[in-house]
Amino acid sequence: MRLNLVVLGTLCVAAACSRGGSTPDPFAGLETHLDLTELRHLAEVNDGGWYLDFGTPAQSKYTVGDWRSGWVSKGVDGDTSYAHVGMRGRVYFQAERPDALIARVRLRPHGTQALTPYLNNQQLASIHLGKGDGFADYDVLLPKDKVTAGENYLLLTFGGTTPVDDQDVSVAVESIWIRNGSEPAKVGRAPMYEGLVATVRFGEEERQAIALSRASTLRYHVAVPADGSLGFGVGVEGEGDAPFAIEVTADGQPTIEVLTGTAFGAWTDHKVDLSRFAGETVRIDLRAKGEGAGRLAWNSPRIVVPERQERNPAPAKNVIVLVIDTLRADKLRPFNPQTRVKTPAIDKLASEGVVFELAQSPENWTKPAVASILTGLHPQTHQQKTGDAALPSSAELLSEHLQGEGFATGSFIANGYVSDRFGFDQGWDHYSNYIREGKSTEAEDVFEKAGNWIDEHKDGRFFAYIQTIDPHVPYDPPGEYLRTYDPSEYTGQIKPRMTGELLEKAKRNPPQVVFDASDKRRLKALHDGEITKHDHFFGAFLERLNELGLSDDTLIVVTSDHGEEFDDHGSWGHGHSVYQELLHVPLMFRLPNRLPAGTKVGDAVSTLDISATVTELLGVPEMASNEGHPLVGLMLGDAANRPAVAFSDFQDDRRVITSRRWKLILRGNLTSTMFDLAADPLETNQLDASAFPIARRYSRMLLGQFLGATNRGDWLSAEQKGGTQLSRENAEMDDTIRDQLRALGYAH
Predict the structure, then answer these.
(1) What is the average per-residue pLDDT within 31-45?
(2) Distance of CA 381 to CAs 585, 666, 687, 705, 713, Å?
(3) How many Cα atoms sit within 13 Å of 407 on the Cβ side?
(4) Is the pLDDT of residue 15 over 50?
(5) pLDDT mean over 356-370
(6) CATH code, domain carrying 257
(7) Among residues 96, 92, 72, 95, which one has the least CA distance to residue 84?
(8) Burial readout 665-697 (b: 16 or more C-beta within 10 A, e: otherwise)
(9) Are 572 and 503 in contact, with CB atoms under 8 Å apart?
(10) Is residue 712 part of a domain?
(11) What is the pTM of this model?
């Protein structure tokens, strides 16, 4: 269904709107939020059919970034780009309706003469491949009864492989061209990625443009920012004018033509107001609806927003980063007003600073999560994914960077994984790990020692990293805190000092320990009591900073490494899943008189952005290899200049992308799960993704682009240059360190 909406918020629908002469600039006061020409590798192109171009930056959105999808390498032969595939190659494409389609696969055989395709896990007719040395076209018929409206999964399987450049290769694929089976091909060959952008001249004015035929579609999936508009110029080559339309579609809504116009043989500029779609993930089609020879050219399509004001908060003198181990966000009132957990100190700090309502941890357990906080690197880059992995000396920690900038650096750590044994002792003037040193890990003692060190260094610039562990097993709060949440005379199997062992046994399959209702109530009460106890001593620590005269000039960051599950999804503890009870963590920044008090930011962000944000707020150079992005603009009310998404991992088996509303979980076998976090923050309702094809396509495309990136700091870019990859090192795991970790409930 399509609704016609007459020129919604547009400018310049006549040739006179070229920017020549005295015509005012329709984009004055605006800046680019997303440059859709630069992001043309994320566009889907229909010119006689949807064209999937392999061996180019456009490939990742169709092949999940080649992650576990069978695609092994890319290459170029003359002007032909291609991708090698092993015994099978997975491809994900979109269909608007269940029509009969033809997928024309252009390939060159290497180790096989047989292709057996599957569509949505249903086998199709096998195809015999020729023995020629060149590329040839093979048509795969996609029956209507096997095509799904929305995302479709095409699996190409082959009969054998042969070694090519030390890889097992079946074929090289140049392209897949998907068109309606009932319509003849309108062009001999669809446009390739490398030829999309051309220099187009109309009269005396020459512009760079994405040039397609007069009957074509350029499609983007975007999350629309507040006050966002679509800006572009348009013109048509050849004789006569050509109609065009801009169509916007949101899931569950009819397609809306937000602009209909005519392209002339001169540049005309247009600005289309998209504010009615603010906060929604939409599909935007730039559709040419003409006939005849000559290309229709789209100049500089982009999402624009009001120009940001130059605001440079005065640098903070000092910084304290507090990681409260095992604290899920929904235990705290700033993130969940219905929580029963009492944390007046955290509540006050949140009211005085900025709260990121949807901060995601990059991993679901301590070592990789903290490695990302301190290095600003994604887990795939720093590789701290196993119990024996260790950060190499080549890793740059925030402590090393700030030490080099003249800061005194002190660490006060109560988790045994964040230790010298695993490479976390780099760059500290004062390094302490209370587990490794056999000292008290209680928040009261950790905060006291951190406060003493800060007192000694208050006259200079300092960075204090504090990682408390009170909400981690074993849960054993003093009686008054426990009774706040469970005043009953409990006599069951839960013993506070045994909670780590009990949760580990409850997680086994089959479980060796089963909890009844009173046990579950007791476990939650113990955990909640630990959080409230911790908050008491955090409040005393903040008061001490105030007495030392440090509150106004010290940036305080409060976060967690991961959360904790209490049978939310059938398990206990952490380190086993990627649901929000483990990945959604608190994130707060307080810097009085420079960051706006009481601000809440709803965009998805990652805790690996902490180090980049800290360096910007301290006014020091950024870390050389940081893959995170500063969050200061978001705190000041600006739209991010990139998609507001966060990525998370679980070892090498699961990959996750989270946006403001949508969360897509991809497993190693490439099955996927999708949730609507706005309607279902506890992830109790797995979505039928076919009902949300636009959100699903948006999520999978961006996740594929990220997984295919070699430079994860610039993962959105088509040209993947540079990038960081740390060498893998293993720590020596002796009995002492194993016993210390077991005492914290780490069974492995």
Answers:
(1) 97
(2) 21, 19, 31, 16, 10
(3) 28
(4) no
(5) 97
(6) 2.60.120.680
(7) 72
(8) bbeeebebbbbbbeeebebeeebebeebbbbbb
(9) yes
(10) yes
(11) 0.95
- Are 607 and 360 in contact, with CB atoms under 8 Å apart? yes
- Flag whether 190 is in a domain: no
Q: Express each pLDDT in 379-408 by its tens digit.
A: 999 999 998 999 999 999 999 999 999 999
Residues 611-670: pLDDT tens digits?
Answer: 999 999 999 999 999 999 999 999 999 988 899 999 999 988 999 999 999 999 999 888
Q: How far apart are the first and last CA of the chain?
A: 55
CA atoms of 177 and 284, how far apart (whole Å): 21
Q: Count up the domains in the chain and report the number.
A: 3
For 622, the token pair is: 């950024």
**Residue type for 730, please?**
N
Which helix (DSSP H) or strand (DSSP E) does residue 374 occupy?
helix 366-375
Return d(Cα 416, Cα 744) in angstroms, integer: 8
Sign of the C-alpha dihedral computed for residues 611, 612, 613 and 618 taken in this order: positive
Give a yes or no: residue 504 inside a domain: no
Are 433 and 569 in the same domain? yes
The pLDDT tens digits of the residues spanning 692-727 come to 999 999 999 999 999 999 999 999 999 998 888 888
- The answer to whether residue 429 sits within a structural domain is yes
Q: Beta strand pairing status for 318-324 and 554-559? A: parallel
Q: Is 599 helix (H, G, I), strand (E, B) or coil?
A: strand
Report d(CA 462, CA 714) in Å as an integer: 30
Eight-state DSSP code of residue 225: P
Alpha carbons 74 and 81: distance in angstroms, whole number: 8
Strand partners, 650: 654
- pLDDT tops 50 at residue 20: no
Domain that holds residue 122: 48-180
Cα–Cα distance measured from residue 708 to residue 705, given in angstroms and rounded to the nearest whole number: 5
- Enter the tokens of residue 197: 């952008």
Tally of CB atoms within 10 A around 130: 12
Which residues lie across from 662 on neighbouring strands?
A: 676
Separation of alpha carbons 555 and 316, rounded Å: 6
